Amino acid sequence: MSQSSPLFNRWLGQVGPDRAVEVLTDLADSAAVFAVDAAGKILFWSRGAETLFGIPRDQAIGLACTQVLSCEGGIDPCGLVEHGIIKAQTVRIQCPGGATIPCRRTARGFFDASGQFVGAIEWFRPESPGAAGVPRQEDTESFHGIFSRDPRMKEAIRIIRNVAQSDATVLIRGESGSGKELVARALHLESHRRDRPFLAINCAALTPSLLESELFGHVKGAFTGAVRDHAGVFLRANEGTLFLDEVAELPMELQAKLLRVLQERSFMPVGSDHLVAVDVRIIAATHRSLREQVKAGRFREDLMYRLRVVPVFLPPLRERRQDISFLLWHCIRQHNERGSRRIESVAPEAMRRLLDYAWPGNVRELQNVIEYAFAVGRGSELTLDDLPPEFHEMAVESTVSELRSAQRPRRRDEAELVREALQVSGGHLEQAARLAGMSRATFWRKRKKYGL
């Protein structure tokens, strides 16, 4: 018999059952809650599940539970089908970041009038923070696919968490590949706009005229080729979030229109004489300093202050050395799950090169390096031969430095220098000439002179 009253049922109809369930699961704090149908397909994925498992809602809804969560021993639904309930079962969940989280699983099955199983609600609560396999807060921060042990990155994540619930405009500063769009999506997923659109546009990728049309839209006949009305991203993102990547590249003539949207919450499509009102949260990103752009006369100061309400700085990967091996293994585990090759270890020399590399492309480059290694390598160990050419060039550059420093304190025998350069380069003349600090023609003459 139902324990709810007619008054409660009436109230539930007013607020909406979906909204009530969402709020109720949000109150569960650190617990993960999700619902599945009779086939085990996920129908609902709580914010607690996003936070605990590091899996966004849009990557879980519609997939089978067993596809989304990797559980040691598997999540056996038989207990639910046969008994309708599971209480405090201990399970160990393998998260995308590589950590294994011991959880207490409680689940309740549902059946139709004929007794057929139609689905269940599952509840996972992590065991004590000191449990084996659970990363301590001071060690690793995980937030919507953002993982870090670096103090500065943790501080950025803390700011992101705190500002997400507001509508404040956020400016993300970071180098290419540092995860600016990932942060923008995390802000959207944690906001009250998470069920509304999230759209992104790169301000450096389009010409000024095309960018204006893509941002604000245009009406039919506004220019040659405008054969129909076109809704820009501001209108399509209404009530949601718009991510403006590389906003420092926005042409001056469009900066005034963007400022108007931020101030007045309205804009005028190209070729139109009517204002369009919108409610959009703006998240902007750039790899440049907007203050320097303002000083150079390339960016409006008033727009900078409008965009830079909450600045978030993402440090480059080369300054987060303790994150390199952590993110490396995170990428390896992801490929292990879906590829034919499985890497269980990394050769010491390969790991040394990976740790010493400058990572100009940041996390995106690290992901590409691991994808390269899985594509070209074989076996369970990632070796130096599995890494892209730039990691082999590191050894040559190191030798260049050593050879040149050796030449400074004393005049070395020229024949010995040419011979050593040839040995190091494996007989490659252009590379050997560079090692010896000579032009290719000079090196060829010296090689001929000494009969090498």
Give the overall shape, derived from the CA principal axes. flat
Instruction: Report the major sheet.
Output: 6 strands, antiparallel
What's the total helix number? Answer: 19
User: How many strand segments?
Assistant: 17
Mean pLDDT, to the nearest integer, reads 80
Provide the low-confidence segments as ranges: 128-138, 406-412
The CATH architecture classification of the largest domain is: 3-Layer(aba) Sandwich
Q: How far apart, in Å, are the first and last alpha carbons?
A: 96 Å
- CATH fold name of the largest domain: Rossmann fold
What is the name of the CATH superfamily of the largest domain?
A: P-loop containing nucleotide triphosphate hydrolases
Can you list the strand order of the major beta sheet? 2-1-6-5-4-3
Explain how this protein is built.
This protein is α/β, with parallel strands linked by helices. The chain is 42% helix and 18% strand. It contains 19 helices and 17 strands. It has helices spanning 6-15, 17-26, 47-53, 65-68, 78-83, 151-164, 180-189, 208-216, 233-236, 252-264, 290-295, 301-307, 321-338, 348-356, 362-376, 389-407, 414-425, 429-436, 440-449, and strands at 32-37, 42-45, 70-71, 85-94, 100-111, 117-126, 141-143, 146-148, 170-173, 198-202, 241-245, 266-267, 276-277, 281-286, 310-313, 345-346, 381-382. The strands form 5 sheets. A 6-stranded antiparallel sheet has the order 2-1-6-5-4-3. α6 packs parallel to α7, α13 (321-338) packs across α15 (362-376) and α17 packs across α18. It is flat and about 100 Å long. The N and C termini lie far apart (96 Å). The relative contact order is 0.07. Mean pLDDT is 80; it is low at 128-138 and 406-412.
